[in-house]
Design goal:
The protein is α+β, with helices and mostly antiparallel strands and about 700 residues long. About 30% of the residues lie in helices and about 30% in strands. It is built from 15 helices and 29 strands. The chain has an 8-stranded antiparallel sheet, sandwiched between helices. It has a 6-stranded mixed sheet with strand order 1-2-3-4-6-5. Helix 1 crosses helix 9, helix 6 packs across helix 8 and helix 14 runs antiparallel to helix 15. It is elongated. The termini are far apart.
Length: about 700
């Protein structure tokens, strides 16, 4: 079987693309090899448009097969289950740059599938899938205004690393993904360790350069094996329909309908206008089904014209003005930390929970170097937050994406495990939504962490910047703090989080064919100005720094170090000793292989008791040491005293009392609490105690 193979050197490793080797019935297929990472990328499209939809039905899948890293899946079925969080986030990163490049009037179902079949730790399967997706669509007959290419950037010791491997990622100060078309940047996703704005812009455009060499490579493949793009049924709204609508509702009337800062009022105005059109076109079978989409587009044109030509925003704000801000902490009693952040009609309540490190999230994925996650951020978006009725069926892709972005925003400022030995979970509950809840989640989470007593290194805030473009690259308006309407009808949602010193996360979604460098630089600068304003004028007045201690209801943790050789003594046979300590004190105990012991509980006295027991067990017993214990056994020759769980020593009958006694039972009874002094070890290696030699002050 003959097939075409194409290769290029990418970041010091060979990228090979096999076309025509597998999956011949897909519209486009590419078997991707990057080093020894193998991903099969396929693109398929339906023959006809899907009826009754007013959007482009694109599905992007990233399938992680555990055989790729030599693992058998867990669970009873031993099959791959639902997509992991990493798989969902990767699908989103692939979707975002590609979606704007399909025709706006295309309604055929398109599925892009990426199956990870082998993973080389030196070559990212996620990146391979991103490139494979772009290639399989570019060579297919599916209409697509590409190609696009994606590059990942890391930074170690101030030096950029392109498409870093797993080991480099683990120590990198930057995890940046940039997608580009031939001329422009089309998608940015980043997590960073407080990187200055200028450095971030430099990294973005270095990645853009690398993307150009990949696009040239894709062009070669398309020139040789690319299929002719198929014709499709356009679902565009007829121009004569728009003309008729403008006679029924004038542009001025439409402007008046959308020009309000209360979402519910605007929605009611649009509902009435929609009814007018439905009435007017009741007899027109062709136009009536298109009314919903046509009203949407009429609104869109109105809002864009208002912003671009008149610099008027629907809620009357200035171009760079942030909506009304409010913040408070300790809204929820008994939780470990809580905060609420409000920006206009967007409101997030965040709740933080602390737990011992044994409760970190376990991860079983394709990156074998990542096995756990200490900081978890979950985001929930109930229907009531937008005034709708819908039962929650668990988090969707959007919720997982928003949670991951807010998580990424705060990871850079968290204390180390040594500084703060806790697993941390933050949950953002959306109370109200009208634009950029993920950035409100970042602000609320930062305050909730400080309220919980987590000693974060710096305050983090986030804001979203929007864009409306005209007919040329120079004709555009950047909008600070976009609300829902400006997001829907605008061209960009550019989210940036950071501290006063630099950026911690970026996520950029756009609906157009890329951004010029002035737009990217302008958006980053505008976001910086806005996040500093939010911190100074809203967050700091509510809580300016982390509390000195964790709250009343949070678990307290005491950390001690023991000799690793003594771990077996502390644990005991089949865990008998450690379980006895836990039972007696009600604490949680974690011991690492290097002898680091964490004792976690809410009662300080019980925690101190547990620590004391562990220290006693882990101590080499020396003559003269004083212990308190309980009589657990009486023999003719003496008594056995348990001074720590599983640890006993013997008091010989001659060492019980200063006066001579004939029977142990004359002085001691089972269960008596006694103080003893260590005499060392007897001939049989047992610890020997004395009661009579204990000094009075002990």
């Amino acid at each position: 079987m003959s097939y075409k193979s194409f290769t290029m050197e990418l970041a010091g490793r060979t990228l090979r693309v096999d076309v025509g080797r597998v999956a011949a019935q897909a519209n486009g297929a590419a078997l991707m090899h990057y080093g020894e990472t193998v991903v099969l990328s396929t693109a398929t499209a339906s023959e006809k448009p899907r009826e009754g939809v007013d959007f482009f039905p694109l599905s992007v899948e990233y399938e992680e097969k555990l055989y790729a890293v030599g693992k058998i899946p867990g669970g009873f079925t031993r099959r791959e289950g639902k997509a992991s969080e990493n798989a969902i986030l990767t699908s989103r990163v692939i979707d975002r740059p590609m979606r704007p490049l399909f025709p706006k009037d295309y309604r055929n179902d398109v599925t892009i599938n990426n199956m990870v079949m082998s993973v080389d730790p030196e070559c990212s399967p996620e990146l391979t899938a991103m490139l494979g997706s772009a290639i399989c669509v570019a060579i297919s007959d599916i209409p697509f205004d590409g190609p696009c290419a994606t590059t990942q950037v890391g930074m170690i010791n101030g030096e950029f690393i392109f498409n870093p491997n797993s080991a480099q990622n683990a120590v990198s100060d930057l995890k940046l993904t940039v997608a580009s078309t031939r001329e422009k940047v089309i998608m940015i996703e980043a997590g960073a360790n407080e990187i200055p704005e200028e450095k971030m812009i430099e990294a973005i455009y270095e990645a853009h350069k690398v993307n150009q060499s990949v696009i040239a490579f894709i062009d070669e493949i398309v020139a040789e094996v690319g299929k002719e793009k198929h014709a499709y049924t356009s679902c565009a709204i007829p121009e004569e329909m728009f003309a008729a609508m403008k006679e029924i509702v004038t542009p001025e009337q439409m402007e008046e309908a959308v020009f309000t800062d209360v979402k519910q009022v605007r929605e009611e105005n649009i509902r009435k206008i929609t009814e007018q059109f439905e009435e007017a076109f009741a007899e027109n079978e062709e136009w009536l089904p298109l009314v919903g989409e046509a009203v949407y587009q009429y609104q869109k044109k109105t809002v864009r014209k208002m912003i671009l030509k008149d610099h008027k925003r629907p809620d009357g704000r200035a171009i760079n003005q942030i909506r009304h801000l409010a913040a408070e902490v300790d809204l929820i009693p008994r939780v470990h930390g809580s905060a609420m952040f409000t920006r206009g009609q967007t409101q997030i309540c965040d709740v933080v929970t602390l737990a011992p490190l044994s409760e970190v999230q376990k991860i079983d994925g394709l990156d074998t170097s990542v096995t756990s996650k200490r900081y978890i951020h979950h985001y929930n978006f109930p229907a009531y937050s937008v005034g709708e009725t819908k039962v929650s069926r668990g988090p969707g892709r959007r919720e997982i994406g928003h949670g991951a972005l807010a998580e990424k925003a705060l990871v850079a400022v968290l204390p180390s495990e040594e500084e703060f030995p806790y697993a941390i979970r933050a949950v953002s509950e959306t109370f109200e939504s009208n634009g950029s809840t993920s950035m409100a989640s970042t602000c609320a989470s930062c305050m909730a962490l400080m309220a919980a007593g987590v000693p974060i290194k710096a305050m983090v805030a986030g804001i979203s910047c929007g864009l409306v473009t005209g007919d040329t690259d120079d004709d555009y308006v950047l909008l600070t703090d976009i609300q829902g309407l400006e997001d829907f009808f605008g061209d960009m949602d550019f989210k940036v989080t950071g501290t006063t010193d630099g950026i911690t996360a970026i996520q950029m979604d756009i609906k157009i064919h890329g951004l010029t460098r002035p737009i990217v630089e302008g958006a980053i600068a505008q976001c910086r100005e806005a996040r500093l304003f939010i911190m100074d004028n809203c967050m700091k007045p509510a809580i300016a720094e982390p509390r000195a201690t964790v709250g009343e209801y949070a678990p307290k943790i005491i950390q001690i170090q023991i000799d690793p050789q003594k771990i077996g003594d502390v644990v005991g046979q089949r865990g008998k000793t450690i379980n006895a300590i836990i039972e007696q004190t009600g604490v949680k105990i974690d011991i690492t292989d290097d002898g680091a012991v964490s004792v976690c509980g809410v009662d300080q006295a019980n925690m101190d008791r547990a620590v004391e027991m562990i220290k006693i067990i882990a101590t080499d017993f020396e003559e003269g040491m004083i212990f308190k214990g309980k009589v657990v056994s009486i023999k003719e020759f003496g008594a056995f005293v348990e001074f720590a769980p599983g640890k006993e020593g013997m008091v010989h009958i001659s060492k019980i009392s200063k006066e001579r006694i004939n029977r142990v039972e004359d002085v001691l009874t089972l269960g008596d609490n006694v103080t003893v002094v260590c005499l060392g070890k007897d001939k049989m290696g047992r610890i020997s105690f004395s009661m009579k030699d204990v000094k009075a002050e002990a």
